[in-house]
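Notebook entry, structure prediction.
Reason for the run: the old model in the group folder had no record of what sequence produced it. Starting over properly, with the input documented here first.
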Amino acid sequence: MSKILIVEDDKEINALLSNVVQSNDYRADTSFDGFSGLQMALEKDYGLILLDLMLPYKTGEEFIRQLRVKKNTPV
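New structure, fully documented this time:
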């Protein structure tokens, strides 16, 4: 079972995405802000990250930029 990280601050959208992901036999971890989402992405390996661009504490663009640097992933 692949793991998917959902980073979305809107609780209803987050829950909807999580339900869709889990109903298709994937494991979903969720976060509601860019800071905690980035911490989760750095601690675990995810097959996919569903990322909102407008997040509290860290934008989606900052999230991607920092994740690439810290995991040494090319652009």
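Summary: The chain has a mean pLDDT of 94.
The old model has been moved to the deprecated folder.
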